[in-house]
Amino acid sequence: MKKNSKNNNKKIILLLVLVLGISIGYAALASNLKINGISKVKSATWKVYWDNVQISDGSVTTSDENKAQITDTEKTQVEYSVVLNEPGDYYEFTVDAVNAGTIDAMIAKDGIVNGVYSDSTYETSAELPKAVKYTVTYADGKEIEENHLLRKAGDNPTKKTYKVRVEYSEDIDESDLDSANDKTYYFKFSVEYVQADSSAKEVRVVADFETSSWKDIASSYASGSTEKLVEAMNNGTTREIDMGSFGKHKIRIANITPCTNGETSETACGLVLEFADIITTHVMNSSNTNVGGWEASSMRSYINSDIYNALPGDLRNAITTTKVISGHGSTSGESNFETNDNLYLLSTKEVYGEAQYDTVDSETRQLDYYKNKGVTLSNYSGAIKQYNNSNSYWWLRAAYSIHYSYFNYVNNFGSRNRSGASTGDGVSPAFRIQ
After folding, report:
1. What is the phi/psi pair of residue 12, to 5°?
2. Per residue in 23-37, pLDDT tens?
3. Do 433 and 424 form a contact (C-beta atoms < 8 A)?
4. Strand partners of residue 15
5. Are 344 and 431 in contact, with CB atoms under 8 Å apart?
6. CA quadruple 366, 367, 371, 374: dihedral positive or negative?
7. Residue 175: predicted pLDDT
8. Is residue 139 pLDDT above 90, yes or no?
9. HEC string for the chain
């Protein structure tokens, strides 16, 4: 029969060490050229490591020194220890295997070790009782296998997210419970990455925008498995999130494709999400000025504090900092501004494909969503957003280029217009995840 977890306080102490072994032979990089001429072999970088440990919601609480964390300067080892007191308790975290170098990596043949041991030397194997469930997989549950590819970095490091979970099972009888009483188990998972060769194979994570975790969505995009994400963007599929006192709001995919024409603003590059509705209203500045543009605006501070902090924690963890180029007004001596933001408002060109009264032009591009809907300065209904179920105005980050007090915005018909900075118009930001 099943035991009532509240009447049993059988502790299991679990100690886990994750070791990412890194080795590579550089013989493949050597050159011995016999044809007359000049050959330059550029330096290569091998840089594979663990990063971004995230404890899952619902995990049992541990002290700071015992929580899952990277414990060595080379960032090759993650350790934690935890006590599971009763059936149903679990500890789970994710950690990214990152390739920030210039060489494709793959998991080596016989490069995966996943063992359970009875002592801290990790030499004496142990058998887990039924009461304990322990798994290491990719974040979407896929099995980790030899030859799995971790591609070299481009503009940003590439990564694969691993998920570790240990659980005190509820599906046990009394003998299972007693056998686990006050036991200590040591887990060691190690994965060795080596230079990729022709046997390397992709790890495909195909995420669904409406239901998959944000980490899986980011992994799906990073692995090139974008078919469902593209479908969601083209269909205008939205996903509702709870923002506490701001209420529930909907977000959608605004962009999939990378920037390839020298754009310096990252705001329309890669996987961009935006709010499909208007969260609230707020002034761009308390005084009627666009001096300092988006960079100096109170709106920028507001959405990167109040709005950002209201997002669910798992979404915040997936958001990456974005380089934002924003336009200036008519004030003498001002030029375009550069900031690094978690959340940002869109520019005029990112919505309409043209930079009307916005000095940000070649620095960015039209977002895929608006381009696919055919949104232009003369065909703009696809830019309409609602506030409290009514069409309403929403701010752009563009200072109105021929005046010192206005910013551009999208009106309730979807067309571009301008308003004084102290006007309380709609807040509907965008962000990137990876």
Report:
1. -125, 125
2. 444 444 454 555 666
3. no
4. 81, 186
5. yes
6. negative
7. 62
8. no
9. CCCCHHHCCCCEEEEEEEEEEECCCHHHHCCCCCCCCCCCCCCCCCCEEEEEEEECCCCCCCCCCCCCEECCCCCCEEEEEEEECCCCCEEEEEEEEEECCCCCEEEEEEEEEEEEECCCCCCCECCCCCCEEEEEEECCCCCCCCCEEECCCCCCCEEEEEEEEEEECCCCCHHHHHHCCCEEEEEEEEEEEEECCCCCECCCCCCCCCCCCHHHHHHHHHCCCCHHHHHHHHCCCEEEEECHHHCEEEEEEEECCCCCCCCCCHHHCCCEEEECCCCEEECCCCCCCCCCHHHHCHHHHHHHHHHHHCCCHHHHHHEECEEEEECCCCCCCCCCEEEEECCECCCHHHHHCCCCCCCCCCCCCCCHHHHHCCCCCCCCHHHCEEECCEEECEEEEEECCCCCCEEEEECCCCCEEEEECCCCEEECCEEEEC
pLDDT at 420: 98
Global pTM? 0.62
Average pLDDT over residues 49-70: 92
